[in-house]
Design brief:
single chain, mainly alpha
């Protein structure tokens, strides 16, 4: 809490009580209590509005996964690279190569599977 421990907070409260004085202290305490009540009401209303706006989706969000302390760029890159490999495409590639070598033939360039993308590599000129 702002780098203040319990002892320092107690000293600050004691100094504030002496500076404010016993005449004005009850009024300031009442004003502080009003601020705390209003802040609590604002937080409760904000939570209610967020729950109303998000609906059932709010319960499904994994907030722990969005924690920036768990950010690991190596894991993100590894997961992204592994997601591109599809089992059907990998099986088809080994099936063609396996068929060429099983037939006793030499693996040639025509035995390789052709890529589905035949145009130039995609380029996004708006990317940063």
């Amino acid at each position: 809490m702002l780098g203040i421990n319990g002892g320092e907070l107690l000293v600050l409260l004691l100094v504030a009580a002496l500076v404010i004085g016993p005449e004005r202290l009850p009024a300031y305490a009442e004003q502080l209590a009003g601020w705390v009540r209003r802040l609590r009401d604002v937080v409760r209303d904000t939570r209610r509005r967020v729950d109303d706006e998000l609906g059932d989706v709010a319960g499904e969000v994994d907030w722990a996964a969005l924690d920036p302390r768990r950010y690991d760029p190596r894991r993100i890159v590894r997961d992204a690279l592994l997601d591109d490999v599809t089992p059907s495409r990998a099986a088809g590639a080994t099936g063609v190569a396996g068929a060429a070598t099983a037939a006793g033939g030499v693996r040639t360039a025509s035995a390789r599977p052709t890529a589905a993308w035949s145009g130039p590599a995609p380029f996004d000129d708006e990317a940063t």
